[in-house]
């Protein structure tokens, strides 16, 4: 990653920290990933040659830039969903500043409704929004995940009660290995490996 993009990411993260210290409403907060978590996601995308990425929870595009940069190196793309129009606009502007807008399809609206209509397949899914809705979203996505998919979620340690149902859902999925990594605010990582013919591409 070049120094210009690194500087932009540092700027966005620091701006997010300042914003969150002042914002009273949760929906106004940036709630950005910790830098070490964002970097780990980027490493996982690059090392696993992931090309069909789905992010639920765009915010200002901080994590989206990390994912898009990695996806571009693999010849891949990112779909990123956020409910808030203001954050959608921020992400759009920041991705343009990063020269990564062409790699990302930004979608604004209710994530559960949106994922129900996504075609897929996805080989990398990252949940970083409403943790209460994540189990239903994961179940909707299962038929459209590649055999060797990685499914991740943030905030395991910072919001254990909110993410408990999601963790239970993941742990009960057949053929998935699951672990929680002590990075940032706690990262749930689930990996599946199945014969390639099991994926649905419709």
Automatic annotation (TrEMBL):
PANTHER family in UniProt: PUTATIVE (AFU_ORTHOLOGUE AFUA_6G01830)-RELATED (PTHR43167)
Presence of the UniProt keyword Cell membrane in the record: no
Superkingdom in the source lineage: Bacteria
Listed InterPro entries: SAM-dependent_MTases_sf, SAM_O-MeTrfase
Record keywords, A-Z: Methyltransferase, S-adenosyl-L-methionine, Transferase
Source organism (scientific name): Dictyobacter halimunensis
Keyword field contains Transferase: yes
Any Pfam family: Methyltransf_24
Name of this protein: O-methyltransferase
